[in-house]
Amino acid sequence: MSGASHEGTSPSTVKERAEIALNNEFLRKAVKFTTERLRTGKKSASEEHGNWDLWRERGRQIRLHTIAHLDYYLSQFIENARANGVHVHFAATSEEAVELTMAIAKEAGARSVVKSKSMVSEELHINAALEKAGIESVETDLGEYIIQLAGEAPSHIIIPAIHKNRYQIAELLSKEAGKELPPDTSILAGFVRRKLREKFLEADIGMTGCNFAIAETGSIVLFENEGNARMVSTVPKTQITLMGMERIIPTWDDLEVMSTLLPRSATGQKLTVYMSGITGPRRPLDGDGPEEMHIIIVDNGRSLQLGDPEFQELLNCIRCGACLNACPVYRQIGGHAYGGTYSGPIGAVLTPSLNKNIMEWDDIANASSLCGACYEACPVKIPLHDMLVYLRNRKVKNGKRMMLESAGMKGFKLVMGNHKLYESAVKIGRAGQVLVKREGKIKAKIGPLKGWNSYRHLSALPKQSFREAWQELEKDLKQEMREMTAETKQRMEQALKTRKGGGNSHEQH
Amino acid sequence: MSSTEHEAFLRDLREKSLRQQEQFIGNIKQRLGRSGQGGEPPAHPFKGAPDFWQEFELKQDERVNLFMDNWKKAGGHAVQLRTMEEAKRFIVQLSKDLSAKQLLIQNQEELHAMELDRSLNGAEVSVWHQQQGLSVAAGADIGVVVVDYAAAYTGSIIVTSSPDKGRSVSLLPTVMIAIIPAERLYTRVGQVLAHFNGSIREQMPAGIHFISGPSRSADIENDLTIGVHGPGIVYALVVTNE
Ligand code: SF4
């Protein structure tokens, strides 16, 4: 029942996973429906708030500034957290983080751990390690709990069980309840409330993630809607917080900006139902809260992005998921097709970056459309589409030259290198499924399914169903086409110019 | 595991942590192309919300209306009352309507003054206490708190922890009633955060909780369900003290 258990059997390439995703009618519909709703919610929440671009710019500046001085702010955070009575630890790798967690859990004589949603813990596959040691590990976020019961991995940062319908959920929970539960949302949620309430009260350790860490007071901040993160940080005696090393913001004032951007971008809420600032373990006379608090600061590939002019801004990400909802490709194929912990446009760039290995993730960057919707949606203005271009170029530069790859790259370069063609590509649509004409023949498709239609892959795919899926996908994508905003267009054109200029190291292949 | 053994365990971890810190921060420095010791705090010109926002300020009646509107939109119940006496009557009536058996109140002056136990027969009224607080909270039907602050623009109440104010009281019971003295209601979240900004670390409460409605989830088919873990029924009583 661990988040990692799907690993062994899961298909290994994006293509294979996308094949499964595309053939799963329900998943496609559910993802589309949900992301559409989130996207609309975000749009109205940001429009209603007003001056959205000013806020985005401010958010970007705060993140840029913090990351540029990460050594200072992280040190300040550590010092203050220690002074609050927190035990601060460092993990350069996911293995080290797991080791630390296990040592603390064993020392506490823990039999059970309750967890609130944390993307970092997904990176670590901590559930598998805990269970191996005979320690029960319970995901307490409703969606995470459901997929934990199913033995799967989350498919969306914000709505992890987006791919399950309520009949499937009723089946899973009925097994847990030992009796048949009707597929009624409120009854199912009610069962989970009772079941998990017991788990909270029994647990020895509560594990949380960390949305933001405030340097000036050594506090951590958690955003959530269900109240499970509050439970996890209120009831058990020991709390372990896993924190990505880049989660820092300098002050509580800066939290106003982040709390304006994050919920609106993630779910369209003005603020999540709960936003909790936790500053150390309970005070000596307090009646609840953890007696012992550990914060494990995790690198796990993050520092590789520091000092890298093309990818450093990845560290600005506040994990809101807006780029997923904006991405036409993600909306079609869903998160499982991406395979890594992080999906969608951010996952496409972050996964290879965290893995230190761009070659390993050859196909992920190709499964994006370079349409710029992710950049427009991003509350801290991370130029994800530029990064996808860098990534593709680096891979080619590193000498990987599969048939598929170079055919695709040629097509891609052809478009990028020809201003007219590029402009019309922009016009045809941000979805980017541009047909590239070469010698009067269509040789490559640029965009979401680039390469997937090449002969090399075609043989592996059931012809009929793939073509059908593709036709439908294409139709859906076309509906979503709209003009790029002037800003994005300008960015893309700028990228083009740089690329054209001589001596550009990305140019060679 | 004896406490001295446990202390030794923590001490070992601490030593290891201090050793690793140097490497960890050193690596960051190096990647950022910086050398030497920490140095001066960097100038932070973009601190906090944009300027135009800092000037945004509503009048009290506007704040009350906006707060109540937002709270209701989030799925909560909100009423405006003139006095604490009215608030008391409201709580008593609600407890009766819901046939509550167990009420848990924070150890706060304003709540003691209500003498709820004298008006509620058939229900037990407990006061948050350092010992046993958690188990009482787990069995309580209604938790009653007087908030520290509130913010109208997001429809949030803010409660902080202390020996007299348990985190569980606003979390574990099925129903939460929050009393908001109108003078603690601000326009923006930033005005509340300003209380913690630059505050003396030693005086920080361990828990600062912004609450903006009932516990909710849309994880099952996007169908909104309330009360998944936290209270699903939440009342905001804004007391204007006119
Ligand atoms: S890249 Fe931007 S939009 Fe995507 S998750 Fe991160 S902050 Fe959100």
UniProtKB/TrEMBL annotation, chain B:
Domain LUD span(s) in chain numbering: 65-239
A Pfam cross-reference name: LUD_dom
Listed InterPro entries: FTHF_cligase-like_sf, LUD_dom, NagB/RpiA_transferase-like
Region of interest (Disordered), ranges: 30-49
Domain of life: Bacteria
Protein name listed in UniProt: Lactate utilization protein C
Organism of provenance: Paenibacillus nanensis
